[in-house]
């Protein structure tokens, strides 16, 4: 009879072994499915960016020997809080539409006054008046297919123009942007963190499931070994038994991965959901993952046979376990030092491989330090408490700290992940903000002094046609500087009347400030004898008109301190700002109408506002919150399951001991209390440590993004509290397990 046949026979006749094998297979399936999902995320972002490459959001024109066929401009438009990608094109002189290769999903090249839109944008055009949206783009003549969209809900407009109507910033290109897209770096980082943080709890669940029958299997293998089986034969038996359950689990994980991908496609990222085809993992990587996880499980099972192979009498008769050494505590600072070095050198090396390796070492060090902490907690129980349940719990923690820690291992990692995430999120949220000097309701278009007059005239004409009383104004941009060359210092100034500044800016100017003639307003009263005007930082500077006053005003926001307001009457004769911003006030009722009025004369130049400046920030924060919640729920569920299975396995391992105690008259409630103390108190100590380490790791990861201080939130205590709660919840299975032991004859063991 070969090893596989023996494994199958054991599974048929031993119900507990069969239960352990089923739970092990489920754990391997969960681990395989999660890793397959997380590993495919970078490829998914690359696939969606590849489809949207033609939209030119990240396109920068470079010199080319190929003749230009298109004038191309890409910008962002907004409607009702939604972002629209606007692509404006025009044929170069002498080029026909047939000579331009269209990107996938684009049915035709629109002519002047025509537009091709995505289906989602087409529905918006049909559902809203033209003065709110439709007049910005022209007549719709086609629909963009899924092959040309980043995500199904994306709002995209490809608008045609004549060459002379294109914006000044348009690029002359030989065709639509093409090449090879790059994956989203943020989601790539999160996927690696997820693999490290979620894979380990999954493997802990597998290990806990395998331990359900550890004592019985160890005695069975020891008996076979004493009966004459060679170490190789015993190893083959365990490898066959573990391979059977782990292999089935890996295949099951591969089978459920399409369902996980389907669920993941409904989770928004960067403004939209996904296509099912986005989650395509290379075949080689898929095969590697499906084979690697079972191999790790089998290897762990085989390595656990050392005692049975060397000293089978110890497994059958019991033995005294060696105490854990203090040097285990060095694993955590050693891993922390490696992580610190990796973080501090990441910017210079330009990669995160060492950072992820350091994170993995920190997670792995918990398996080394955790049992020692558990043993220390057990020693404290034995020395201090005298209640029967506390003494039983302390002796268990002291005698088998590795087995006792197993119930807390997944919880510790979940708390670590939660503390790390709740350190980073409030800090990222505190970074949100900023924007231009205008009030939130203002819309603006950046241009130059050659085009500003035309934009203002046409926009105001459209506003009158739409029945709006608002009017666009041109706001120049100059610099108030002192010194020359490299020693020049100063700041930006907006050229606008005081009355317009009261209505359009965030400077808290009032009508009282507007009396007394031309002025320069800022956070301090400038010495205008020292400061001069220039339309660019390095150009020649001229003095303001005599009689101009400098007035200090209260600034409500710190980001306004580097900007001043200067009245046009203070400019010297003949001085014209080179750069101009066309500004138009809006209300909640007419904001989209005003935007439409600006869109026509702007001809593809981006129309901005403060709330749109914050759009990407809020989108990224929403993505991070969503991913954090999903990740922590998954980690918590895995940790709770592993704690429950480990507690049940602890009871099964000690059936003889518990049976003898019950036969001697020990109440089940005392034993149940002891088991709950075994789970809760080490979990409390370990989770506090994991929470502290998680905060420190969060600080380290944040330092790679920004050097400003971290923001600590009271919510940092939540993972520790929830971790202890999950440990108690998992330990609640001890009472049913003990009652099962009580119901079965002790002679069965």
From TrEMBL:
- Record key words, sorted: Cell membrane, Membrane, Transmembrane, Transmembrane helix
Q: Name one GO molecular function term.
A: transmembrane transporter activity
Give the membrane topology, semicolon-separated if more than one.
Multi-pass membrane protein
Q: Name one Pfam family in it.
A: FtsX
Tell me where in or outside the cell this protein is found. Answer: Cell membrane
- Keyword Acetylation: yes or no? no
Name one cellular component (GO) term. Answer: plasma membrane
The record's listing under PANTHER family reads: ABC TRANSPORTER PERMEASE YTRF, MEMBRANE COMPONENT OF TRANSPORTER-RELATED
**UniProt-recorded name of the protein:** ABC transporter permease
What is the scientific name of the source organism?
Answer: Amycolatopsis eburnea
